[in-house]
Amino acid sequence: MTNFEIHGLAQVLIALLLVIGGLFALIGAIGLLRFPDFFMRLHAPTKATTLGVGGVLLASLGYHWTQHQFGLQELLITLFLFITAPVSANLLSKAALHLRLPSKAGLPPGQPRA
């Protein structure tokens, strides 16, 4: 297999996707550390980190396309990630509700206390 030179615009786009993905992953990690309870912490890895990994996978897919490869592995990883992350978050939140884990989030305005 021969290596092809990558066009300058493709290099910029791949680098931008890597930086954006890295920023989302960093924001997700900071949120996981800073949020006070389980329910709030659940949002950080399921939202921001999923977008971060998605950005890195898109950058990898773009790189492989510049090398005239299809990138089937990246497509499968992306599909698996975006299907399993919401399902696992839903199951974790249902388990936490079943165990009656306390939440530090306030009630919405006008909601009576149970």
Automatic annotation (TrEMBL):
TM annotation in the entry: 12-36, 72-92
Signal peptide start-end: none
Top-level taxonomic group: Bacteria
Record keywords, A-Z: Membrane, Transmembrane, Transmembrane helix
InterPro entries named among the record's database cross-references: PhaG_MnhG_YufB (IPR005133)
Name of the protein described by the UniProt record: Na+/H+ antiporter subunit G
Organism of origin: Roseateles oligotrophus
Origin organism lineage: Bacteria, Pseudomonadati, Pseudomonadota, Betaproteobacteria, Burkholderiales
